[in-house]
Amino acid sequence: MTLTDGLVAVVKEDCPTCRLVQPVIDQLGAHVVSEDDDAGLELSYRLEVDTVPTLIRVEGGKEQERTVGWSRPQWEAVARVGGLGPSLPESRPGCGSRTLDPGVADELAVRFEGHRLRSRRIELSPLEDEADAMFERGWTDGLPVVAPTEARVLRMLGGTRRPADDVVAVVPPDLAECTVEKVAINAVMAGCQPEYLPVVIAALEAACTDEFNAHGVLATTMPVGPVVIVNGPVRRRIGMNAGVNVLGQGNRANSTIGRALQLVIRNVGGGRPGWVDRAAQGNPGKVGWCFPEDEEGSPFAPFHVWRGFDAAASTVTVFAGEGPRGIVDQLSRDPESLARTFAACLRTVQHPKLALAFDAVLVIGPEHGRVFRESGWSREQLLGRLEELLQLPGDELVRGAGGIAEGLPAGVAGMTIPKFRPGGLLVVHAGGGAGLFSSIIAGWASGPTGSQPVTREVGL
């Protein structure tokens, strides 16, 4: 966009301050851009005007300075002219630009930015129901989705600074390149707000690593899917719930971020149930599962700090997990007793006779967390004690022991086997303030042959 050198004044008819300063605009001989006609509205949009009147100085075809509303000293500074509007008040606030009006902003985005979108357009018949049409085309997870119109996708793209055509990841199982635009489309369908988009992008980046092994997570017959754990300032900035019902429904960010990740894997990567997704039973979390840690109420340092990130960073951690199972301990008031409860329940992850095969996330509720805070236990101290308590006698693990055919080979008899591999037990803090409960999220096959938790920083 080329601008003529000089002063440009952006105004609109129904703005009292615009009418107030019209004599000053006439005195300066400024080029007037009126938002009351299409040409002026387009120019205002391209100049990114958010308040009228806006006075802009142009030199060499480029903007050099601007001021908004009416302030005599600021207008004199931009215009480089003294004594402006001596009969006017010293200052007056402006009005919102028409480019920001509901409906108008979306219309302008489609008119002037719609060309940025590379995705194929699909026209629906006026007689087609949008929700049914998208379900019939196989784009949904079985629940209704939001139609990804150009306006909605462009609005979603406003949540990140990354270019729409930037490739975020190669998504399994089809190993298809996924751009920011494709992520935005699926985030719209999932019901996300634009400010959630950077979190969805980071989750996709983490899920598409070799370490997480999304293809394996999809193809396994076990009931696991990506669980997204969010840490850092972004949790509060986008209004996530780390308290009551943290692992359940009711919060938009919690509910839609994980769903967006799953829709990308389905619609871009081709990971559909019954095709590559071969879960024998599955779990409700496979629709999408995301929750934040309650860092402020935690007795421990934030989870992402334990994972090696700065406390001021925002991160997502993806974990291949099944649905949560509760831990009930209403009576333990000392950390040793509560640690023993946790260990007894953790031993049952996937099977009490299987060891070193599966990771787990222990989600400690606030009332249980208080026991460790009051005793001064750190996360490392708790993990160390759980490791001691989960050294299992090989004689109890061998196949046939206890009258149970499942188990480890006979060679482990007489040995002591740890339940979890080093680093295979993760501890986070979240939940409502009432109730002496915690939860376990059991994982899939652990380590290089299965899936490992992956943490990525959330960018802009």
Summary tags:
460 residues; 17 helices; Glutaredoxin; 31% helix; 19 strands; seven-stranded mixed sheet; 2 domains; single chain
Walk me through the structure.
The model has no long low-confidence stretch (mean pLDDT 96). With 460 residues, this protein is of the alpha+beta class. The two termini are 26 Å apart. The radius of gyration is 29 Å and the shape is elongated. The strands form 6 sheets. Strands 11, 12, 13, 14, 17, 18 and 19 form a 7-stranded mixed β-sheet that branches. Strands 2-1-4-5 form a 4-stranded mixed β-sheet, with helices on both faces. Helix 5 packs across helix 7, helix 7 packs across helix 8 and helix 8 crosses helix 12 (252-267). It contains 17 helices and 19 strands. The protein has 2 domains: 6-101, 3-Layer(aba) Sandwich (Glutaredoxin), CATH 3.40.30.10; 136-457, no CATH class.
Helix content: 25-40%
Q: Cα-atom Rg, whole angstroms?
A: 29 Å
Quick one: biggest sheet?
Answer: 7 strands, mixed
The dominant shape is elongated
Mean residue pLDDT: 96
The count of domains is: 2
Q: Based on helices, strands and strand pairing, what is the structural class?
A: alpha+beta
Q: Strand percentage, roughly? A: 15-25%
Number of distinct helices? 17
Tally of DSSP β-strands: 19
> Span from first to last CA?
26 Å
Q: Which ranges are low-confidence, i.e. pLDDT below 50, for 5 or more consecutive residues?
A: none
